[in-house]
Structure formats: C-alpha cells, structure tokens
User: Fold these one by one.
Assistant:
Number 1:
Amino acid sequence: MFGLSDLLSLIVSAFIILPVVVFFREAGYLIGSVLFGAVNPRVTLGSGPRLFKIGILDVRRYYHLYSWFSYDELKRESRFAYICLYAGPILANLGLAFVINMLLANGIIDWRETFWNRLIFYAFYYALFDIIPMRTTNGKPNNGKIIYDMLRYGRRTDYNHEPFLPSTSESEKLYLQEMEAIQEHEESDPILKEKKARRIKTKERFGRLGQRIYPKRKVKPGVQQQEKAASAEQDCDQKNT
C-alpha cells in the first residue's frame, strides 16, 4: 500500500535524487569538452525562467524537470574526441554509482542508506539506457548509439536533422524569445497578470529571498520586437512618401 512514507520518498527522489543524478550525467559531457576545447559550454539544469547563471551552470526555476548540455563547437574535432564527449555522461553516472556503493560497502557512509541506494539505482538506470545503443524520440540516437557508429563506421549517426547536443548560442536566443513571448502574454492574460502581481508581493514580503525565487526577467530585444520596430519604420517611411 502506498503510504505517507512512500509519498515522502517519492518527493525526495523527484526533487533531490533525480536532479543530482541528471546533473552528474550532463556534467559528464564536460570531460570531453574540456579535453578537446568546446567553445561556450553550458550545463542547463531544469526548464522555464532562469533562476541564476554562474559560469557554465544555468539553473532554471523547474530544475527537476529537464536538463541538458550545450556547446557551440569543438576546436579539436576527431573520432576520438566525439567518443570521449558522448562517453562522458556514461562514465560520470557509473563513477558516481560505484563510488557511493564502495563507501556504503566499507561502512564509510552508515546513515540514510535508503537514500544512497536510490541514488545508486537511478545512476545505474541512466547509465544503462545510455550504454545500450538505441534510437529515442524522433529517431534521435542515444550516446551508446553514437559511440557505436563512431567505432564501427567512423562517423556520427545522421538519421535525423536535429543536433545531438544543442548550440549554446542558439539555445540562449530561443530562451530570450520565449521569455519575450511570456511577457507579452502576461500583458493580455488576466490570470497571468494576477500571477505577476503575486510575484511582486512575494518579492516585497521576502526581500532578497523573494527576488531569488521570482527574479525579474531581463529580456533583450528579441525577434518580435525587432520586427515590430522594422514595421513601424516602414509605416513612417510610407507616410512620409
């Protein structure tokens, strides 16, 4: 029977254990990116509006939902470079699982054993589905499939047209456009206006803590604003002529 203790375990797994494991997985790409000179690397933890950005770490408000690694290009491209890059997440999760398991087995960690066992389970889970070569959503290959094709055929899989790892610069542009669209939608939707008012009250009530939870969105002029400005200029030119 699913009881209160199971609910608490589920909450801990969803909001603590899984984000930690996923973070180690995405950070594993740094192994190859550092060795072969990845330009503009970034580890994004979560989705939605940005909470804060420190160096290569970008943390979003819904940090437990989805995470990814991105870069613009590799300075030293080769078959070995891509094998190391895509093997990084597998090695990171396996290393995490084996180290914690060793600490438990030798009695170095003797508290919250259930917590650590779950962390080991999820680390092996992600490593397993990274190692077995397969295609995922939209025919996109996983890391094991990419490594297999690199070893056998000497090239990365080119079945679909989506990039295996997104570009950091393009991801930032899409983020700014998304935040701009949200701001425009907030001005016309009464429910979103009410949420925005609650965010302002939270900031005033909790001070700096509230500002960290609900940061002010600073959005650079995006594509939509540029198009509006261009159309306005065209209208002015037509009126003048």
Number 2:
Amino acid sequence: MLLSGRFDPWRGLLLGLRMMFDVVRASIEIAWAAVRPGPPPINAIIAVQLLTRSDLVTTLTAEAISVVPGTVVVDIDRERGLLYLHAFGTRDEEDLAHVRRQVLGTEERIVLAIGTREQAAAVRAARRHRRATGDRPVVPEPAEVPPHVAREIAPEHTATRHPLDDEGKDDA
C-alpha cells in the first residue's frame, strides 16, 4: 500500500466525528430493531462501486463501514473497486441507495483526509457530478457484477428445508 504522505487535520477531524456519529446512530437503530415488535428487518448483500482503486483507501473504507453496526463488508473486488456488503434494514430501493451513499460518503471523507491530491480532486469532481444529477449513487452496471457473485433469487427457487433432512427417514 502506498501512502500519500498527505494528511488534512480538519478533514481527519470531520472523518472521526462522522464515524462516531454513525456508530451511535446505527447502534440505536439496531437496538430499537431488536426490541420493537413486528417482523424482523429485511437485509441485503449489495455491491458498491468505489471511486478510487487505492488499496489503502479501499481497506480503510471497508474497515470504517464494518465498524458501524448494521453493515459488514463480506468481499472486496480490488480489480473492479467493488465492495460487497451486508446491509441491515434494507426494505426498498431507497434504503439500498441510502447505504450506497453512506459508503461513498465514507470513502470521500477518507480520501479528503489522507488521499493524494489527484484522488481528492477526483472525489470532489464525482461529488459535484452526483449533486448535479440529483445525488444518485454510483451503481455498478450489471456487467461489472459477475452473475455467480451477486444475483437475486426468488423465494420459490429456494428450498424450504435442506434436502439431506429427509435422508435416513426411510430407513427407520
């Protein structure tokens, strides 16, 4: 991993404060979901296209995302710059977009705090572009996500019980 040799103390402080805020907010949300009546929350594994290809930024982003309760990075595709993460409480497309915005925001704060000047300029340009296009998150194209890694499975295509559960019942 190559270090940029650049550290912006103000951006570092903002990164730390936002991390603390995210941890507290997510902890309260998880605690409430654990005690509230009703059906359990729906979760998802989603792919998030990162803005940079830096191993250091990718690692720090994955760690920062995993520290916040409710999100865990399950895989990283370094070549494509994709994070696959398990997200808690994703009921609809808006929730998925919110998680993607959170991940990209974390990556932006990390790059602005410790990234190279070129990375910081690229992040600022991507932020301006997202704001100009209605703040839509960067979503990987279907060709970027291998079909064997991430796909939706309809409930009717899943087993209600494990097929091996019936083995040995005929012997008794």
Number 3:
Amino acid sequence: MFRGRAADRVPALLGALALGLIAPLGTQVAAPAPEPAPVVVTPPTPTARPVVLTDLPVAGPEDRRVALTFDDGPDPQWTPQILDVLVKHGARATFCMVGSQMERHPEVVAKVVNAGMRICSHSHSHDERLPARDAATVTAELTDVATRVPGTPVTYFRAPGGNWDQQILDTAVAHGMQPLGWAIDPRDWKRPAADEIVANVEKHLHPGAVILLHDGGGSRVRTVEALDRLLPWLRSRGYVTDFP
C-alpha cells in the first residue's frame, strides 16, 4: 500500500499512533478546555449604622476624597445648572431630595439620575419637627423618596434641618439608609456671596469631608458660581469628589 518515501514514514506514523500523539482517521479530536472565567469579587455593600455620617472613611491624609451633597431640590432652575457644572468638571455628587419637590419636577429627577449622580432621601415634606412625629409618620416621610425613583438605590437619609433623634436614626437604618450629615456647611442657604462660600469650604476642607450645599429652597445663583470655582480648586490640590 505504501511505496517510496511514503513507505519510509510508516514506522514513525505507527509509533506516534501507538503513543497517542496522533488520532486515528475518523476520530473526533476534542477541543481544548476553555480557560475558566476570571472571578469578579464584588465588594460588600456597607451596612447602615444608626450614627450620623459626617466624613467618608478615608485611609489617611493621602486619600483625598470628599463628598458634595445638595439639599432641598429638585428645582427646575437651579438643579440643571448645578448638574451642568458637575458634568463640566467631571465631578460626582449626591442630591438629597424632598419628595414633594420630586412630585412636582420628575423630569429634573430623571436628569440627576441619568447624569450618574446619587439620590439621598431628605424626607417627603422637609418637616424640621420630624423628631416630634409618630412612628408611622416618620416612616412615611423617610421612605417617600425611594418610591419616586424605582430601580434607583436610595441608601442615605438626611434629616431636615439636621434634626435627629434615635427614632429617626433607627428608622433610616431599618430601611437600609445610612443617616447622612455633613462636616462643612458654608451656609449657602443664607445666600452669601460666592467668595464667602468658596472661602468657607477652602478653610474647613479636609480628606473625607462631606460638604453641604443647596440646589433648592430659593435662588442658588451664588452656589452655582461658587461650585464652578471650587471644583477646579479641589482638583488642583489633589482632591476628588466621591459618593458617601
């Protein structure tokens, strides 16, 4: 059957076949097993605790993360302007929204969510006497915001006026929301000059600081101006904005 040079190769072919180095004719050769997919480890979600968070848990002075937060919106005039400034500078922020305002301006809520920002509950009615209310009212006030953004996590609650009591702390935690305060309040709600807002933040800034600003509750033209100046200043000093 084999002649010439073909006959010379027969012993080598038979030896390779015996050792299993080649497969007999008609044998289906199995494809090599695919490499296992890399294991992606998702970090655990922080557990809410009944204490008011005022600073991010930074690793040290070189961990220069800070959190920008905006209260009392959404507002159809000022929230989009603040969003524009944040997007322009590539910054992150958390918007502590009031449910009654969300009800009036759902299109602004959508802008905030679609821009990749976070939503924090700031109650339904911004009732600064919330600690005096009964348990059912407190629960309804705290959980209202999340019902208006289905599919969007609402994992923080900020008490109106910063008025906390144990019932509010415990209710927030029971509904998966970390009580959120602030470390720096430039009191922009009093509408000081933009220079004053900027100077106040610069004076008290430190790694991990949660900064309180406002996008609702009246004219925020000075807050918008101050934010546009603060963000490049933060970057020049190595700070980055992050979520709480």
Number 4:
Amino acid sequence: MRTALGVWRWRRNPLRRPTDLFEAWVAFAALVCVLVVAPAVGWVAGLRVDGTLQQAAHQQRQERHLVPAVVLRPALESAAAAGASASASADASAQRTAPHRTQIVATWTAPDGSSHQGTVPAAEEPPHPGERFRIWTDARGRLVGQPLDPSAAVFHAGMAGLAAAICVATLVETVRRLVVRRLMHRRYIRLDRAWAAAGPDWGRAGAGS
C-alpha cells in the first residue's frame, strides 16, 4: 500500500525527479511480484513436484511388497558389537548414543515363490529365533526400502513450493535493492556535478547566494 501511494504521490509532485518516479514504479513492480508472481511460481512448482512424487509413490507401491520373514539367529557383526559394548568403560557407557537396531539373519519367501536368506534389522529387541516379522522386498525378493507415503509426498511438495516462492521473492527484492542502489549512485553523481558548477560562485556578492 505504501508503495502504491508512493507511485501516486510522485505523479505530479513539482519536486519529483525522473529517478524518483522510476524508483517508485520499481518498488511497485517488486511488490506485485512478491504478492502475486512468487506465490504463483511456488504453487506451480509444488504441483509439479507433487505430481512427480505421487507417481513415484504409486510405482513403488506397485513394485514393493510386504512379505513375512522368520528370525534364524543374530548376525555375527551384531554379536561382536554387543561384546565390544559390554567391555566399554563406565565413562563411555554414560554417554548418550543413538539407538541401534540389532542385525539378524532371517529367511523369507519372495512374491515370485523364491526363498531368500540375509541380514536385516530386527523388528523387535531382543530378537528371538523363530519370531516372525515383515520386510519390504521387490518381486524377486531383494530387500528394498519402504514405499514413499502419499502424505509425505504432499509435505515434500509443499516444502518445495514454499522454497520456490521464497527464492523468487528473494530474487525480486535483491534486484530492487540493486536498482535503488544504482539510482542513488546516479543521484550522487548529479549532485556532485551541480555542486561543482555552483561552487565557484558560492558566497560571492551578487552571485545570488
């Protein structure tokens, strides 16, 4: 609103310089870009990212399957890690560490009917041989990550759209500041020239000062 009023004020002001009106219009254009163009760019970017992620999530849900697995035994590296942890000093054990899931050897049957065996993270602590849990695999039984959740895709798309809008608004404000800085530089140059032209007569009798 202040920018629009500034443009209107400089329209017929007798003290207006050409750069004043240009600066006001630059500020008005920047305001329109920030309020209209930036949200539009963010909306379009969010829609495109959401479409891409939703398509990826749908494809992953088609290609990935939850299959039952059976615990056989703890993995060798897990046992070694447990021994090392038990022999640690009291000071080291007092420090807070990130939770670690035990690695186990499990067996499972793929959707295509093939049998597989491998090392996977335990579903529960402590794991017991014979326990059943579910893991994500592809059609051939190879371990894969959990499919992308549609709600998570919407969240990531929203964040991408917000980031795009912020980038556009930042770019617009940067350009506006550069233009204003250039205008101020030109004003100082003209002021210096005018002062240099009037300087020799400054303070002299009959010079109009």
